[in-house]
Amino acid sequence: MNPRRVAVTGLGVICALGHNVTDVWSALRDGRPGIAPIHSVDLSQLRFGNGAQVCDYDPGKHFEASRTDLLDRFAQFALIAAREAVRESGISLAAELREKTAVVTGSSMGGQSSQDAGFVELYQRDQGRVHPLTIPRTMTNAAASQIAMEFGTTGPAYTFSTACSSANHAIGHAFWMVREGKAELAIAGGSEAPFSFGMLKAWEAMRVIAPDTCRPFSKNRRGMILGEGGAMLVLEPLDSAKARGATVHAEIVGFGMSSDAHHITHPSVEGPVLAMRAAWRDAGISPQQIGYINTHGTGTPTNDLIETRAIREVFGPHADRLAVSSTKSLHGHALGAAGALEAVSTILALREGWIPPTANFLDPDPECDLDVVPNHARAAQIEYALSNAFAFGGLNAVLTFRAH
After folding, report:
1. Would you say 144 and 161 are in contact if contact means Cβ atoms under 8 Å apart?
2. How far is the C-alpha of 292 from the C-alpha of 24, rounded, in Å?
3. Active-site residues: which are they?
4. Given this chain, do its domains 6-243 and 254-402 carry the same CATH topology?
5. Side-chain half-sphere of 123: how many Cα atoms within 13 Å?
6. How far apart are CA 352 and CA 249, in angstroms?
7. b (16+ CB within 10 A) / e for 342-363
8. N or C: lower Cβ tally within 10 Å for the chain?
9. How large is the C-alpha radius of gyration of the chain?
10. How far apart are alpha carbons 84 and 316 in whole angstroms?
11. Interval 240-263: pLDDT, tens
């Protein structure tokens, strides 16, 4: 079988920028960050105060009480995003198609909030027991399993947990399955909910969280801002999408991976270079055809510098003609869900003809000398774009998208 072209026909998202694709795109287009004071824990016990949390969220609007008791917040976000993506795709999941549908999700930590709550009961309150559903709530594959049960899909369903590259690994492998005929449909993305006290204290100890906001590529950047949420894509063969008259938001055309084999937390230039090269080669295009990169762009001094150097090594003189931006400046760093939020952002940029900005940008850094689309979205008709994800442990995953 010849490789098939793969269409993105459904998008779903919930994050600090909004509870659906329309609201999230509005915030991206306007450059309105969802970063604000953290509202879920006592800030007096933290050295940082800001995060990108989902606001005005009521689980009862989405799930019956009995189901909410089974679902950690990260799995709730995944289901909400999957519902929107499937509904928006207009796909009819008949029995035959359900058997050939893959569900591939990414999450770096799974049900951290549920685990933290259990530890409080066990160690702080000395209750001697935890919630009986702690294990099914905390397991990282809970989102994939719940999505499969929601839609009755009986094809492959599994989860990647590769830190901040989790969602890109999930989407990339789902893309390969559809392209190679191993699946006729895929629901793929990621979700994360890291705003529990224990997890925030763990990130505090890393000393990589900004005291104010996320300023990727800015000279005075001081670190990342944690975010949460979920995003899902519906992928199917382009021919199938056309045959049923579906709206095609974009095509996914390439995927590349690499390992730094270098350091558990400090990135290398070589690993991201290999992943970006693999992504455009898998797409069968040249680097000069890429017009936009949604960068990993965490806002930490080291990461942004390394990513800049990697982009320059991959693209050479063409790097000066690339637009790059970090939407983490808007929706925060959602860890294992980051790649999914950024995939949606990249697809919308291609579809709408606007590049979302790098928000909160102040003074340029001469060592991050790329066109970072500072503070204001830019009208641009882009054919090909990359979306980068570079994780702790040196695990890199890059997606290539094409406007349709």
Report:
1. no
2. 19
3. 164, 296, 333
4. yes
5. 7
6. 9
7. bbbbbbbbbbeebbbbbbbbee
8. N
9. 20
10. 40
11. 999 999 999 999 999 999 999 999
CATH fold label, 6-243: Peroxisomal Thiolase; Chain A, domain 1 (3.40.47)
Write the DSSP string, 128-159: S---TTHHHHH-TTHHHHHHHHHHT--S-EEE
CA angle 52, 212, 35 (to 5 degrees): 20
pLDDT digits (tens, 9 = 90+) for 124-136: 787 877 888 889 8
CA atoms within a 13 Å half-sphere pointing along the CA-CB vector of 103: 28
Q: What are phi and psi of 296, to 5 degrees?
A: -65, -45
Sign of CA dihedral 23, 188, 202, 368: negative
Q: How far apart are CA 396 and CA 379, in angstroms?
A: 29
d(C-alpha 171, C-alpha 279), whole Å: 13
- 263: buried, middle or exposed (CB in 10 Å: 19+, 13-18, 0-12)? exposed
**pLDDT of the chain, 404 residues: tens digit per residue:** 689 999 999 999 999 999 999 999 999 999 999 999 999 888 899 999 999 999 999 999 999 988 888 999 999 999 999 999 999 999 999 999 999 999 999 999 999 888 888 878 778 787 877 888 889 899 999 999 999 999 999 999 999 999 999 999 999 999 999 999 999 999 999 999 999 999 999 999 999 999 999 999 999 999 999 999 999 999 999 999 999 999 999 999 999 999 999 999 999 999 999 999 999 999 999 999 999 999 999 999 999 999 999 999 999 999 999 999 999 999 999 999 999 999 999 999 999 999 999 999 999 999 999 999 999 999 999 999 999 999 999 999 999 999 99
Domain ranges for the chain, please list them.
Answer: 6-243, 254-402
Prediction pTM value: 0.97
Domain 254-402, CATH 3.40.47.10 — does that match? Answer: yes
